[in-house]
Amino acid sequence: MSTNFVRAAIGAAAVAACGGSALAQSALPPVTITGNPLGGSDLVAPAAQLSGTGLTVRSQSTLGETLNQLPGVSSTYFGPNASRPVIRGLDGDRIRILSNGGTALDVSNLSYDHAVAADPLAMERIEVLRGPAALLYGGNAIGGVVNVIDNRIPRQPGEGVLGKADLGYATGGREKNAAAMVETGNSRLGLHVDAFRRRHGDVRVPAALGCTQGGVNRVEARICNSGSEADGGAVGGSLFFDRGYLGASATTYDSSYGAVAEDEVTIGMRSNRYSLEGELRPGGLVQSVKARAGHADYRHTEYEAAEAGTVFRNRGNDLRLEARHAKLGSLEGVLGLQVESARFSADGTEAFAPYSRTRQRALFLYEELATGWGKFTFGGRAEHVQVASEGSPLVARFAPASRSFNPGSASVGVLWNVAPRWQVTGNLAHSQRAPKDYELYADGPHVATGAYEVGSADLGKERSTHAEAGVQWKDGASSLRVNAFSSRFANYIALLGTGRLRDADGGGAGGTGAADCGDGTSLESGCSAEVMPEMAYQGVRATFRGVEASGTMRAWDAAGHTVDVELRGDLVRAMNRSIGQPLPRIAPVRVGATGTWSRGPWSARLGFDHHAAQSRVPAGDRPTGSYTLWQASAQYRMQLQRASLLWYARLDNATDRLAYSATSILTQSAPGRVPLPGRSLKVGLQASF
Which residues form the signal peptide (predicted)? Predict the structure, then answer.
């Protein structure tokens, strides 16, 4: 997408903000719909959502960091530019990232340095679903679902013009960002256009770090090679008729960012997606039929000192149909079909996985049975997955191969209204996941993990049994929710060290169990690109257990002032039972609190998040120390003609604390190189009309 288009769209929104007419309310309601396709607000599975001012104030440059600190959610943090959500200790292909309920195709699950092809600037709402209800979206949602909603296909008619424009600047990376959205229409037609830009340099940290670029050595209090720039936008439209709608959208996302594991490696990414969505409400036995179809074309190139290197491509299609049947007594539910296909390729020196093609077909069912005291839920999903290696025209060690799997998943849940303000929930689920292409067929050096990765073509389905219990209380503005869970895996697919050393070309490097990299370099200081430790995908027995808690207490409400105290905390314990050691990259115990104040157009927040030390790591991994990060923010809302203006300021890491993430691979593969960002002040203005 050209810079001129982005500027034009932002300008159009600014003009409309001052003179546009009001549009009938078409904003999406703040209900977590991913966890319940029937649209109910009482959810058996734990869920969270960010939208409106809450999302604006919390938004970071990546999806993972935006959601980080939600109870049960951490991030992979590969520097400021690449970060995927981690839910209850599970990451990668076990977390399904959706776009408006459809597949969001990229290669962010393949490698920690690959960014998600989406920017929080363009998101209207983010929903996070934890636990067994995620099985509706496939075995690779075994850990949870993150659904990004952008309203690029309008779903409700309206009259006139509405929109939003957002400008911001942050000191930590000298970041400048701008975004705009305009929607217009009538009772039969809806149109949408949006665009955004983001630019920032190397991100400031409270430590002096070395950097070598262009043959020049320097030491700065910044993360070397952490700058980025991104542009994107979309156009969409819908036709409305008496019993439904039909809409389409085209979306593009371009990004260029530094891969912080290496001083002179950058990644240039482009993702284009085309979507078709519709709903028909015939009435009778079939109340509604929803359909979503999409095509995605993703490509990124890794550059070494501006010279093009490895090129990754991923193209795919997806189709999802959902039919909601009428109530049969107290029973209502949804039946569905999902079809996906994707073709992946990698060409270059860091192509550690072959060309591959994955096809998936699935049938699913979700039902709710209302009772006088609550409800029962139950669901199931049957899949057929074919994963084929197509070899590689450039790498002889990649050979054609194919595997087929038939994963099945089922869950039951209960919600009990034990008292007027109290609810108790329980879930039990069995889930299966087919191995990914790289888990089966990888065979090559992977710089992001600092290892030579080897797949296993004999891997079986990943299988787990999940049990969960929760209690929640709500009384006006005060609420409390606590959930405890246990997931037991009979065949958890883990990437584990083998004790061997490998050359970058696939050959051995001098035995097993070596104390160095084979070239005199110690394993602790990291191996060179030519010699690296071998890691292999293996099926092991594993257990994930934990507790999550969150609550809000109204402390004061008088004379126009309201004061609330928000509390949060989580704990995850993950064990490789096959060898009796902890699994790697698990978040430590975390607790946090935030005080909020509001009076009229003013509001403010002050809080902290404390991360305990993480010493429960597998043999050979480095523990991480404890740290506390303080945050503060303030907002002021005013009305200017037809526009509502929100002025906001946010101070991150207020005490400028040096900290390292326990869930980042960089803490192990590049120790000391990439701390969490230091103190940064962001100021911004958002205009809505």
Answer: 1-24
Residue 348 tokens, joined: 């270059």
Q: Which of 248, 228, 230, 229 is nearest to 238 (CA)?
A: 248
Q: Which of 360, 339, 488 is CA-nearest to residue 435?
A: 360
What is the separation of C-alpha 675 from the centre of its chain, rounded to a whole number of angstroms?
Answer: 21
How far is residue 180 from each of residues 122, 191, 196, 234, 506, measured CA to CA in Å?
8, 14, 6, 11, 49
Q: What pLDDT is recorded for position 508?
A: 59
What does the pLDDT look like over 595-630, one tens digit per residue? 999 999 999 999 999 999 999 999 989 999 999 999
Question: Sign of the C-alpha dihedral, residues 533, 537, 542, 545?
Answer: positive
Query: How far is the C-alpha of 605 from the C-alpha of 155, rounded, in Å?
Result: 34
Q: 352 exposed, middle or buried (CB, 10 Å; 0-12, 13-18, 19+)? A: buried
Stretch among 16-30, 390-404, 448-462 having the lowest mean pLDDT: 16-30
Average pLDDT of the segment spanning 371-376? 93
At 520 the pLDDT is: 42
Amino acid in position 350? E
CA distance 360 to 362: 7
Beta carbons within 10 angstroms of residue 2's beta carbon: 10
Q: Residue 510 pLDDT more than 80?
A: no
The first and second tokens of residue 100, run together, are 């408006």
d(CA 577, CA 592): 31
Q: Residue 594 — φ and ψ, nearest 5°?
A: -140, 130
Which structure tokens are listed for 138? 């496939």
DSSP code string of 537-563: EEEEEEEEEEEEEEEEEEEEEETTEEE
pLDDT of residue 507: 60
484, 524 in Cβ contact below 8 A?
no
CATH number of the domain at 3-688, out of 2.130.10.120, 2.40.170.20, 1.10.10.10, 1.10.530.10?
2.40.170.20
Q: Locate the domains of the chain by residue range.
A: 3-688
Return the percent helix, strand and coil in the chain, to nearest 5. Answer: 10, 60, 35
pLDDT at 492 over 50: yes
Q: Give percent above pLDDT 90 in the chain.
A: 72
Q: What average pLDDT score do residues 266-292 get? A: 94
Output the CA angle 638-643-644, nearest 5 degrees: 35
54: left (phi over 0), alpha (psi -120 to 50) or beta: alpha
> Mean pLDDT: which of 24-38, 41-55, 296-310 is highest?
296-310
Pairing of the two strands 102-103 and 95-99: antiparallel
Residue 44's pLDDT band, with cuts at 50, 70 and 90, is: confident
Q: What are phi and psi of 524, to 5 degrees?
A: -65, -30
* Contact of 174 with 154, CB cutoff 8 Å: no
Give the phi and the psi of residue 135 in degrees, each rounded to 5: -60, -20
Q: What is the pLDDT of residues 542-581, one digit of tens each?
A: 999 999 999 999 999 999 999 999 999 999 999 999 999 9
Closest CA to 673 of 263, 209, 80: 209
